[in-house]
Amino acid sequence: MVGVFEVGAVPFNPDGWGPPDSTAAALSTAISLPLHVPFAPFSRSEKLGRIADFTRNFPSSAANPSNRPSSRHGPGNPSESPFDFSLDLDAFPLANPEDDSSFRLVDAKPPPRPKFGPKWRFNQNRPQLPQRRDEEVEARKREAEKERARRDRLYNLNRSNQNQQRREAAVFKSSVDIQPEWNMLDQIPFSTFSKLSFSVPEPEDLLICGNLEYYDRSFDRITPKNERRLERFKNRNFFKVTTTDDPVIRRLANEDKATVFATDTILATLMCAPRSVYSWDIVIQRVGNKLFFDKRDGSQLDLLSVHETSQEPLPEAKDDINSAYSLSVEAAYINQNFSQQVLVRDGNKVSFDESNPFANEGDEVASVAYRYRRWKLDNDMHLVARCEVQSVVDVNNQTSFLTLNALNEFDPKYSGVDWRQKLETQRGAVLATELKNNANKLAKWTAQAILANADLMKLGYVSRVHPRDHFNHVILGVVGYKPRDFAAQINLNTANMWGIVRSIVDLCMKLNEGKYVLVKDPSKPQVRIYEVPADAFENDYVEEPLPEEEQVQPPTEDAEGGEANVTTNDVEDKEIEAQT
User: Fold this and answer.
1) Which residue intervals of 401-541 are DSSP H helices?
2) Residue 369 to residues 212, 286, 358, 387, 518: CA-CA distances in angstroms?
3) How far is residue 446 from each of residues 75, 261, 387, measured CA to CA in Å?
4) Which residues pair with 479 in a beta bridge?
5) Sign of CA dihedral 326, 332, 335, 341
6) What stretch of H or E contains 68?
7) What pLDDT, on a 0 to 100 scale, did the predictor assign at position 129?
8) How far apart are CA 454 and CA 399, in angstroms?
9) What SS3 string covers 299-333?
10) Which of 296, 233, 329, 238 is nearest to 575 (CA)?
11) Is the pLDDT of residue 288 over 80?
12) What is the side-by-side strand order in the sheet with 526-532?
């Protein structure tokens, strides 16, 4: 039998809309409503549920009558079950906390501003993610701690030297002893050099002297895992002859081939002067309408600076193997031996117009060729320079000139990069570190390669066998670069280099005949020009002034007016052996 649903009496209001106002009508209406129907109030912001559900059944009702749904008026009435939702959370979603969590109202209010401060920042009850405690995290923490300690050490060191503009100013003296009778003519700050620019036409080769051996390509495949021991070439002679002692330049000067004469080492020093930190000096001689740029015997220009532009200070004691002077001698020794070891020593050589002008007959001479090149500075002024190349290589059936130089690692703790670990996988980082610590030396090598018109410049990475052994070394790698591409990489402007040379030449051409010296200030980025007596530097053979009883007389000259057969290799071997 189907149950009958009675709606009940609906009151009629003849006076208007809505329920009647009389209390009696309200009471009669309340009495006529169905009994035991639960009252569920709601508002417009709430979601409505079901009013009645006749399809519900309660399986557990027969087994456990106490679990059957009941109303507020009495339990066990079957007619109440379609309308009683007091125990059913699905009927009214707002009563279900799970559904309520997904229900959101549209709130146009701006979000509350955060209350900044320690109390708000540190007392938040935010769920903390579990921290990783694996080996990678611990390793990173250790590396960060080491880096922090290194930075603290550098910070404390810089604070102790904060009154010094550059560390080298307090460590190194002037390369030449400034005498009181010298007259200072001019003082040029390096800031004026950065704005100079001068374009020169392509030079011409006047003469090429010497012999060159071929480069051994097997050295390009050297890695730190298959390093090679650096050999010593004590029987080969290396010559560092200044401009006025060069018989070829004297001959060219007598033939009026040019008005300005120099060597590639001297020109590169001038071109890269703004990058220099250590003190250096160049002797300038004005003879008639000609200008000669010379270096003193035993000048600092014969050696190679190490860590010149680094912020990490080197030991001040001169007899320390890691002092600036000791490293310079060691670098020159390494470069000479490296330039001869990477050659194919099978007797096959490339000969040029003339033989080596500084060697005696029968001497074993290092592989080197001197290119005497002439540049046109203006219509009445030409410059001749002696440029060096160390090797040749055949590329596409064409002979290409090479310059050979070596960077040396003495102690990884000074540079912060261990070549044996980083050179093979992070070669760019190693080169970037060397560009930071040896910016002047690399710029001078690049300038010399450009002056010599070398097709390729080879850079070797040479390291000590042990950080405390400065006499035995190994080759860890060799890399080749095109000089002009490498110059662009290190921000070396060719026009600016020639602008510096042209400005110095124009300044010296205005001087009277005599001898002058151009000195780099050891503590300030500037150079000074002094007028010196004509016999100055004739009794000096050391790079720094010493007491008279310790001064060494210069080597005697041979009959032709050139230097005797004294090589820098012999001098450096004696100095290194004395230090050991």
Assistant:
1) 412-415, 419-422, 427-437, 439-451, 483-489, 494-509
2) 6, 28, 11, 8, 28
3) 103, 20, 12
4) 459
5) negative
6) none
7) 46
8) 11
9) CHHHCCCCCCCCCCCCCCCCCCCCCHHHHHHHHHH
10) 329
11) yes
12) 183-189, 526-532, 514-520, 281-287, 290-294, 260-263, 381-389, 368-378, 204-213, 349-351
> Is the distance from CB of 197 to CB of 496 less than 8 angstroms?
yes
Which pLDDT belongs to residue 50? 63
Identity of the residue numbered 122: F
**What are the φ and ψ backbone dihedral angles of 195, each rounded to 5 degrees?**
-95, 0
In the block, tokens 């591409």 appear at 485
Structure tokens at 555: 């080597």
Q: Could you read off the pLDDT of 183-216 as tens digits, one per residue?
A: 999 999 999 998 899 999 999 999 999 999 999 9
Q: What share of the chain is helix, strand, coil (3-state, %, to 5)?
A: 30, 20, 45
SS3 state at 498: helix
Q: How far is residue 321's CA from residue 468's CA, in Å, rounded to a whole number? A: 8
The pair of structure tokens assigned to 382 is: 């030409």
Place of tokens 């008026």: 73
pLDDT tens profile 408-456:
998 888 878 889 998 988 888 999 999 999 999 999 999 999 999 999 9
CA separation for the pair 144, 138 (Å, rounded): 10
List the 391-395 sheet strands across, edge first: 228-229, 469-481, 456-466, 398-409, 391-395
Pairing of strands 456-466, 469-481: antiparallel
Q: Which long-range contacts (CB under 8 A, 24 or more apart) does 44-47 make?
A: 45/105, 46/94, 47/93, 47/94, 47/103
- Name the burial class of residue 61, with classes exposed (0-12), middle (13-18) and buried (19+) by CB atoms within 10 angstroms of its CB: middle
CA dist 38 and 69 (Å) reads 12
Q: What tokens appear for 364 in the block?
A: 């074993």
Rama region for 537: left / alpha / beta (φ>0; ψ in -120 to 50; rest): left
Distance CA 493, CA 498 (A): 9
pLDDT tens digit string along 119-171?
444 444 554 444 445 677 777 888 888 888 877 777 776 655 444 444 443 45
**How many other β-carbons are positioned within 10 Å of the β-carbon of residue 191?**
10
